[in-house]
C-alpha cells in the first residue's frame, strides 16, 4: 500500500499531465491573476477573513507570520474546480484569493478527497 507521500506525489504527477495546466503559464493568466489580486476586494485570503484574520498573504492560516518568503503572497483559487472547462477557468466569479496555507493544505486536501476545493494557481 502506498504511503501518504507517495499518493500525493502520484496525484500531483497525474494532475500536471492535464492539458489545461499550461494555462497557468500564459501571459494572459498572469495578467488576469495580477488584475484580480489588485482589486481592493481581493486583497485578503477569504478563508482567513472568515476566521477573523486579515491576511494579505504574509501570515500562515493560524495567524503566525510566514517565514518562507516564497510563500508570502496570495493565490487565485478556482472555487469550483474547472476540470479543463475553459469557460469556468477564466470566469472571475469562480475565483477567490487564498493564502498559500489555505490553498496548499485545505483546498488540495479537499480536492484529493473529492469534497470540493479548487485548482492551484
- Give the low-confidence spans: none
Q: Assign the structural class, choosing from mainly alpha, mainly beta, alpha/beta, alpha+beta, or little secondary structure.
A: mainly alpha
Tell me the strand percentage band.
5-15%
The share of residues in helices is 40-55%
The largest sheet has its strands arranged as: 1-2
Order of helices and strands: HHHEHEH
* Quaternary structure: single chain
Largest sheet, described in full?
Answer: 2 strands, antiparallel
Gyration radius from CA atoms, angstroms: 15 Å
Give the overall pLDDT as a whole number. Answer: 90
Beginning-to-end CA distance, first to last residue: 31 Å
**Total beta strand runs:** 2
Number of helices in the DSSP assignment? 5
Q: What coarse outline follows from CA principal-axis ratios?
A: globular
Report on the structure:
This protein has 121 residues and is mostly helical. It has a domain at 42-121. The chain contains five helices and two strands, in the order αααβαβα. The chain has helices at 4-16, 27-38, 46-50, 86-90, 100-113; strands at 75-78, 95-98. The protein has a two-stranded antiparallel ribbon with strand order 1-2. It is globular and about 40 Å long. 20% of the residues are buried. The model has no long low-confidence stretch (mean pLDDT 90).
Short structural description:
By secondary structure, the chain is mainly alpha-helical. Helices cover 40% and strands 7% of the residues.
Layout of secondary structure:
Layout: H1 4-16, H2 27-38, H3 46-50, E1 75-78, H4 86-90, E2 95-98, H5 100-113
Antiparallel strand pairs: 1-2
Amino acid at each position: 500500500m502506498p504511503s501518504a507521500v507517495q499518493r500525493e506525489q502520484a496525484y500531483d504527477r497525474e494532475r500536471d499531465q492535464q492539458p489545461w495546466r499550461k494555462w497557468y503559464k500564459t501571459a494572459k493568466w498572469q495578467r488576469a491573476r495580477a488584475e484580480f489580486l489588485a482589486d481592493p476586494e481581493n486583497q485578503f485570503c477569504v478563508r482567513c477573513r472568515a476566521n477573523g484574520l486579515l491576511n494579505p498573504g504574509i501570515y500562515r492560516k493560524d495567524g503566525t507570520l510566514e517565514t518562507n518568503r516564497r510563500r508570502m503572497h496570495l493565490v487565485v483559487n478556482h472555487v469550483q474546480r474547472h476540470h479543463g472547462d475553459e469557460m469556468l477557468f477564466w470566469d472571475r466569479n469562480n475565483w477567490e484569493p487564498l493564502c498559500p496555507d489555505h490553498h496548499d493544505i485545505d483546498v488540495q486536501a479537499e480536492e484529493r478527497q473529492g469534497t470540493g476545493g479548487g485548482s492551484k494557481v
